[in-house]
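Let's practice the habit of predicting before peeking. Look at the sequence and jot down your guess about where helices and strands might fall. Then scroll down.
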Amino acid sequence: MLKLYHATISPNSRRVWVTLLEKGLDFELIEVELTGEQFKPDFLAINPFHHIPVLVDDGHNVIESLAILDYLEAKYPTPTMLPNNPKDLSIVRMVQFVTANELLPAGSALFPVMLGLPGGDAEKIAKAKEKIAVVLKFFEGLLDERPFFGSDNITLADAVAGTVVPWLPKAGVSLQDYPKLSAWCHGLLARPSWQKTEASKEILEAIKSRMAARMS
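Done guessing? Here is the structure:
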């Protein structure tokens, strides 16, 4: 059986979890406590870079979330989550990589804001919001009359961006100026895979407490 080593709060982990659910695959979910468990020998044996997620499939260890998504699509192609049309495929890939390389690094500055923690570097937060606005405008332009990025059916782009963009309003980033993106978010949040993988209030409160303790 497939095994996914993950942390619920991690968008990198969640994109894989969502994809496994959307593909209807059987898998075992193994929570990794990121308070030190990722540095233990047992975990380092499957990923020497001590990062999550890790997918284990019949003794084959796959690290890096985007590589895991490609592995799942290649080995378990039904239902397909990558379009064949070159233009649509480019849209999916652009959304994936812009999320990973631009949106997530900028959004990390807003994570304390999302949790309601005081303080924070006002200048860094302002710059992060500027970068995020560029990304959101770009994504808005990629959406058309179809409900997903580059497809009538859910794609890997939706799994990647969809585990980041919907929480931005909680960090003070409005989606009001992006009607297509806002509608896309509402559609994803109604899906069982998104609802099942949403971090609980208890998990968020525990993370908030740990972060508050470090900040003090």
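How did you do? The beta strands are 2-6, 27-31, 54-57, 60-63.
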